[in-house]
Write a structure and sequence with these properties.
- Strand 6 and strand 7 form a beta hairpin.
- This protein is of the alpha+beta class and about 210 residues long.
- The structure holds coenzyme A (COA).
Length: about 210
């Protein structure tokens, strides 16, 4: 605590306000410098790379090493090139987070995807070296804001793997309620237990 106060005072005395605020935010692990924008077809390979790198850490031990290291990179490239193509459905958006101009994470969201469960968060990933800095929260908020802008008024949901305890902790922190369990179809023909996380409305996520 004493070190924190010392750093804050040092920042305020020695640097302009904006720099002091950024240094303080970074010390506290608060993100002040993520930019989130809509991804375009030109971002397909970037999104694929973010996805692969995230899976290679988060799903190590759930999917095989052979799949993660040799199959996933090309498979993700094909998948995101299709998903971000001009013919992609209009109720889906991919939002890309950048920090100091470098891509660090993305979320894919589908408005009003299910009559009962509402809008669907299809993917949310922050690369391992940028996790814990507020990027996941900002991406979820951006997805919620996009949904609100489209007039999606119903609930919001996603699936998380049962074994993915860090992500489950994050979603609970973001106010999600774990509702129904269910099997998830994964690459390599794997079927893995998952948990559905729900929010009553996008507005509860955008705050
Ligand atoms: C899950 C993930 C998106 C979270 O993003 P992140 O940038 O690491 O999380 P943030 O820094 O935005 O965290 C926001 C808040 O959640 C909390 N949080 C993060 N991880 C947590 C955990 N494992 N347990 C409890 N709380 C957690 C943070 O402490 C922070 O809380 P605060 O309000 O007190 O500041 C990211 O870690 C990730 O990409 N993981 C690997 C891929 C993955 O599993 N994606 C989900 C697939 S369903």
């Amino acid at each position: 605590m004493r070190a924190l106060v010392r750093q804050l005072i040092w920042c305020l005395l020695k640097t302009p306000y904006a720099e002091a605020r950024a240094a303080f935010s970074s010390y506290m692990g608060i993100s002040a410098d993520f930019q989130v924008r809509l991804a375009t077809p030109a971002d397909a390979l970037t999104v694929a790379d973010l996805h692969t790198r995230s899976w290679q850490t988060a799903y190590r031990g759930i999917m095989s090493d052979a799949y993660l290291d040799t199959v996933a990179p090309e498979e993700r490239r094909v998948a995101w090139t299709q998903k971000l193509s001009a013919s992609a459905p209009g109720n889906r958006a991919v939002l890309l987070a950048e920090r100091s101009g470098c891509p660090v994470g993305f979320v894919c969201v589908v408005a009003d995807e299910d009559p009962q469960w509402g809008s669907f968060i299809d993917n949310l990933h922050v690369i391992p070296e940028q996790q814990g800095s507020g990027g996941g929260r900002q991406l979820l908020r951006a997805a919620a804001t996009w949904l609100i802008g489209r007039g999606a008024v119903g609930p919001v949901y996603l699936w998380v793997l049962e074994a993915n305890t860090p992500a489950r902790g994050f979603y609970r922190r973001m106010g999600a309620v774990e509702t129904t369990p269910g099997w998830r179809n994964m690459p390599e023909g794997l079927r893995v237990p998952g948990v559905r996380c729900t929010w009553t409305a996008a507005s509860t996520l955008a705050d």
